[in-house]
Amino acid sequence: MIMKGQKINDRYQIIKSIGEGGMANVYLAYDTILDRNVAVKVLRGDLATDEKFVRRFQREALSASSLSHPNIVEVYDVGEDNGQYYIVMEYIEGCQLKQLLKKRGRLTLSEVIDIMLQITDGLSVAHDAYIIHRDIKPQNIMILDSGLVKITDFGIAMAMNSTQLTQTNSVMGSVHYLPPEQANGKGSTLQSDIYSMGILMYELLTGELPYKGDNAVEIALKHLKEKIPSVREKFPEIPQSVENIIIKATAKNPKNRYADARSMNEDLRTCLDDSRVNEAKIVLPYPEFEDNNKKKETKNKESKENIVKEVKTEDLTREKSDNKILITLSAIFTGIVVVITCIIVFLPIITNQKEIKVPDVTGLELTEAIGKLQDEGFKIADEQKETSSDEIPAGKVAKTNPMAGVKKTKGSEITLYISTGNAGFVMEDFTGKNYLTVKGTLEAYGVYVILEKKDVDNVTDASVILDQSVKAGEKVSKGDTVTLYIPNITAKYPNFTSGDYTKEQIEAFCTQNNITCKFNEVSEATGNYKSGDIIKQSRPAGTQVTSGASLTITIYVKEDVEECNPNEEVCE
Is 135 among the residues known to form the active site? Predict the structure, then answer.
């Protein structure tokens, strides 16, 4: 048990618990050597003695520590202290993407594209290293106040060349984002992360999950058999080019998906271009896998049995010894349901009380609403309550409890809620924050947002809010207009392959624009290059620079070849 004030490895002093997981607990701690707050993930005590879990935990550390990218939570330290295995990571002050979804519902199109670009940008680094996250979901995505996205918890990440991980029969990750191949126990590939990102993108655009069910098995079966619902049927304003990304990412057959996160990232960057406005809908063959008629029934049966055995989400894990208890509880529950059903069905008959629907009185004056309800035989509560409403004018009935349409017996008491009008909200100080995040928040309240650029000095981040037309503390209501002022920065990536740039100049450009710069040397290239030539850049020339992004420069380095002396007897 980790206690407040306890020091791990005589260095990391525990401040408080900030999260619990199936494999490890996470604590906010203070690094006494480097004078900074960190997040410490500690393997649960009951698992620390299990070799299997310890190895998995250590693989997590190894995989995560090899990744360096602005969109991936950084790992600082890995170790063991008195039998406690731990990982030290950067502490993120922000909110989970899941929390943002619960608060806002569906996000705006611009927000979704921005978030997905950052996620795929970060995962592309992992995929380049042949590391699979295996658990992409909103709970593992953090959003900072600046709008920067961070991928967390490579807790079940897997190196493709690791044979140990491919031998497990357990299906990892959350079933709502589970790729079909993982549900079938066939292991994961880079395309497995692509599928989960497609499901995530669907959820961000619609505010709901594509596949629902009463249990994990039912949901997993839908991932295997059902087509992804159309986002454009729900929201026609979403461009077809955007829906096509979801269709391709969530293909049942991994061969029909993007090859990796980088390929998906490249498609996301152009999906809102004018050139793709009239893009045709992607239609995949269905079913995507070849069927064998003789074995079809057997395979379906085996598939279902495999899912039942393999889907081991935290909420489904039970010991065999609990079966008798579950059966007993089920019998008791069934008996209770029968009794309640009998009461509901027969009580009105016994008491000779007829149930009638509560009439809809929303939008009526108080006296008119009371009269209508009393005419139906209902009793009115002595006190009315107040509630804000965007649709119902102040002073009129906004709703009732029980709500309109519910069947109740005559004489039942009805509480009336009187509208106070549009409550609006108090404006915050958004200066210094990412305009995309703020724009989405304001639009969710029904506020119209105008972006206006201002010429400024000594500002390199084009996404930061400089000022706002409505000051902090002032009230804003639905339908109001707010202007956000952002820097007029038009920095674009130069053509570094032109031969006019040195390595030092590129590094200076990256530093000036807050970009992570990486250099990759290759000895093989198609073309007439000399050693030291820049032959490739990950960000196309002419595209706008975004603070916090990464740039990879590929440099051709000619291998030293030992020249042959013709005077020697043997010349190879």
Answer: yes
| 1 lies in some domain | no
Task: Single out the residue of 38, 142, 19 nearest to residue 91, CA to CA.
Answer: 38
Q: Which domain holds residue 388?
A: 355-419
The residue length of the chain stands at 572
Q: Per residue in 297-322, is it b (16+ CB within 10 Å) or e — as a string?
A: eeeeeebeebbeebbebeeeeeeeee
Whether residue 476 is found in the same domain as residue 519: no
94 backbone dihedrals φ, ψ, rounded to 5°: -170, -160
Question: Is residue 455 exposed (0-12), middle (13-18) or buried (19+ Cβ within 10 Å)?
Answer: exposed
| 275 shares a domain with 139 | yes
Alpha carbon 514 to its chain's center: 25
Q: Quick: pLDDT tens for 44-83.
A: 766 677 777 677 667 667 667 777 888 998 888 888 888 8
Q: What is the pTM of this model?
A: 0.52
CA angle 510, 258, 266 (to 5 degrees): 30
Q: Looking at 135, 153, 260, 461, which residue is catalytic?
A: 135
Same domain, 50 and 75: yes
382 and 404 share one domain: yes
What is the spatial distance between Cα 357 and Cα 378, in angstroms, rounded to a whole number?
10
